[in-house]
Structure formats: structure tokens, C-alpha cells
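Sequence in, structure out.
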Amino acid sequence: MSLDTLKDSHKQLMNQLLAEKKKYADTTLPQECNNVESLGEVNLRPRRVLRGHFGRIYAMHWASDSQHLLSAAQDGKLIVWDTFANAKMYAVPLESNWVMTCAYSPSGNFIASGGLDSLCSVFNLEQQEDLGGTVHQKLAHHTGYLSCCRFLNDRQILTSSGDQTCALWDIERGKPITIFSGHSNAVMSISLSPDTQTFVSGACDSTAKLWDMRDGKCKQTFYGHSADINTIQFFPSGFAFGTGSDDTTCRLFDIRADQQVSVFSSESTQAGVTSIAFSKSGRLLFAGYEDFNCNVWDTLLGEHVGILAQHEERVSCLGVSDDGLALCTGSWDSTLRVWSI
């Protein structure tokens, strides 16, 4: 049997499976919540503007204390900020300017970054004052750019790559523990479940996948987007997740229903989605767009309820603090803005 025949057979089978799944999609979340009161317009107050980068900011990540955050820009710097004092704590020089992601460990002791160098570089913050810029560990295995990284703890970190795989690493040994293969194009984003036993990935093959960290296998694949998925984020409950795509939409997928339950789009939001984050309760979805704006969506009703429009370039990254009180947006205009929720 030829490869083309196998591909055609696989496509037909997938279409049959998707058609069967659609039979059970008898409602959507907005339809089920039509008796829920609308939030009205949501206005967030800007509290801080963090200036210090001299290049496009590509990534940011809150520390678990909800006071400090990490940012990465193509000026070749990782900066650790104290958002309460509006001050820089550390400025860590990188060997490569072409950074795409950064992460703060739950303990606050380590930070990590990666990008077009295909490496995940881990830094010990406790040593930065004495050994500024010294890399604690370089994790080398991926053959494509490093698109995203997230710490499980001080000993393990999860990465995704343009080589179509994700990897779980033993940081001290500098070696991968598990390689997660299954996407057919570059993996752009990952998000850990609240219990860190599973994670979801979004890729340029327009699919999102749920993986079990314990056996390294893909448990579910979710369809709906028509273009690259740039960002993915677990819902606070851990039973759902959101995605953002170049197709200009955000979508909410329910893991138990095994399919999409809501789509967030409007005629006024016709730019690609770069980043998303949920509020602490999950009622609000914040989404960064290439048109310089951050839009706010009501996850229950699917309504557009707000817009944050103070950046002068694309919003490339955003995140909600662990205490749920602040949103930070990062942009190609080289600034980070902190908003009160």
C-alpha cells in the first residue's frame, strides 16, 4: 500500500471521527449560560509601566509570589522585575538575542529562557549577583527553535519546539526524561495542568493535544482552528483550556466533552492572537493581538467585554498573577504594563 493511499485512508477516517463527534455537540457554553447576567463593560486600571528593555519583548512570566515577574526581549536580556516597587531586580545577559520564551520556577530560585538557539538555558537567581549571566544548565536536544518552557519544580522543566516535539527534562542531569511526539508541525505553546500531571500543547498543525506526563502519551487531540495555534492556557479548574490562533479567534475546549464549547471572535478583532490568560475565577479571558490591543472576553457568554489599548505595537505576551489581582501585558514597543483586575 502506497504512502498516498495511507494518507487518504487516514484523512477519511479522521473526517468520519470528527463527524461522529459533532453529533454529540448539541449545545455551546453561551447557549447553556443564556440566563447568566452580562458583565457589561470591563475596565482595568493601568498601575505600572515597566521600562528597561531596548528591544521587542517576546515573553513574560509571573513569579508565584505575584510580586515579581520575568521578561525576555530581543535586546539579549532577561529582566526580573519587582512590580510593587516598579524596579529591576536582575538583568541577565543572554548568549543569543533571539529569545522566544521565558519561565519562572515555582520556588522563585530559577529562571529559564530559549529561542532560535534551540537551547533551554536555566539560570540560578541566587548566583546572579556573584556570577552575572552565568548559565546554571544548558538543555540541548531539540533540533528546532525553543518556543515555550515551563518549570514543574526546581528539578524538572517542560519545553516545546519547532521540531514538532515537547520534552520533559531532568535539569541537573541536563538530559530529557520523556520526549512527546505527535504533532505534525511546530509546537508553539504549552500549559501545565494545575496538578502538573498533564499538559496541553498548541501547534502550527492547527490542533491542540492533551498529554499525560507519566506515560508520555497523547490522550486527546482537539480540532477547530483553521490556522496556527500560537498560545494555549489551562482553565483554572483544569477541566478545560483556551487557545489563540492566527485565524483571529480564541476557543475554549472542554476536556470531558472532548471538544470545543465556545469561540471568541468579532468583526472588530481581525488580527492574529498572540497570547491568552484566564482570570482567577475563569470568567474573563484576556487575549493579546497583533493589532496592538488586548481584548477581554466573557468566557460564559462569549461576549467581548473590554479592550486594553495602550500599547504602541503588537501585544506579544501576557499573564495573570497567581493571586488573580494583576494582569501584565508585554509588547514589541519594549514596555510591560501592569493592570489591576
